C-alpha cells in the first residue's frame, strides 16, 4: 500500500494492531498465528514466526480475496453480510473475518492447530476482532 494518506499506513496503528495480535496468540491455546491485511490485500501485521516459509504478502492478498469471495457467495445465497469463513485442512483450521469500522475495512486471518475445534477457533478469533475493532474505532 503506497498511499501515505491512508491511516492504515500509520506505524502507530500498525504497532497497536501487532500488540493485540501478539497478545491474542500468546493467550490462546491452539492458535498458530494471526495475520491482518487491508481489504485490498496488503499485509499490515502478523504473528507468523520469523523462520516460517509462509509468504506474508501472498497470504494477505489471498485472505482479502477469500473474504471478498465469501461475502459475494453469501450475498448470492441470500445470506448477505458474511461474518467470516472457515477452511478445514488436514493440519488445522483457517478462519477469515472481514472487519468493518465506520472508516476502515481490514481482514483478519487466524490459523489454528488440528486439535482445535470450530467453536474454540471462532470464539478465539472473535475475541481478537473485538480488540481490533476497538483500536480502529478509537484511532484518529
Question: Can you characterise this structure?
Answer:
This protein is an alpha+beta fold and 140 residues long. It has a single domain (7-138), classed as Beta-Lactamase, CATH 3.30.450. It is built from three helices and five strands. It has helices at residues 11-27, 56-76, 118-138; strands spanning 31-38, 43-46, 85-89, 92-100, 105-113. The protein has a five-stranded antiparallel β-sheet with strand order 2-1-5-4-3, sandwiched between helices. Helix 1 packs antiparallel against helix 3. The model has no long low-confidence stretch (mean pLDDT 89).
- Please list the strands of the largest sheet in the order they lie side by side: 2-1-5-4-3
CATH class, named: Alpha Beta
Number of strands: 5
Main β sheet profile: 5 strands, antiparallel
Q: Any idea what the shape is?
A: globular
Query: Can you write the helix and strand succession as a string?
Result: HEEHEEEH
Low-confidence stretches: none
Strand content: 25-35%
Rg: 14 Å
Determine the CATH superfamily: Dynein light chain 2a, cytoplasmic
> Based on helices, strands and strand pairing, what is the structural class?
alpha+beta
Helix content: 40-55%
How does CATH name the architecture? 2-Layer Sandwich
CATH-assigned fold name: Beta-Lactamase
Output the number of helix runs.
Answer: 3
Instruction: Provide mean pLDDT, rounded.
Output: 89
Query: Span from first to last CA?
Result: 19 Å
* Whole-number total of structural domains: 1
